[in-house]
Design goal:
single chain, elongated
Length: about 90
């Protein structure tokens, strides 16, 4: 059972990384012109990498927070339902 849960967590982690990658790829693709103009105006390559890193952080942090909140709520509801149902069946 533990190996199954670890496998599910790994698969969900890979899916979330793939989603983050596709969001960043779409964002960078949409802003290629702006990034090119910034480079033409003298922005250093390292600064551009830092700018993209900050944007990826602003993509991932809200997703991480909302995912943790959703997992906590679903875990609490699931535990309540499981223990409440098992408690009701043991009384009969």
């Amino acid at each position: 059972m533990n190996a199954l849960l670890v496998t599910i967590i790994v698969v969900l982690g890979i899916l979330s990384l793939t989603l983050l990658y596709s969001l960043m790829l779409a964002d960078v693709d949409a802003k290629t012109y702006q990034f090119g103009m910034l480079r033409a105006l003298g922005l250093q390559k390292l600064s551009l990498i830092g700018l993209i890193t900050v944007q990826s952080t602003f993509f991932s942090i809200p997703g991480l927070i909302s995912g943790l909140i959703a997992a906590y709520v679903l875990n609490t509801a699931g535990r309540f339902a499981i223990f409440r149902l098992s408690f009701n069946y043991t009384n009969y």
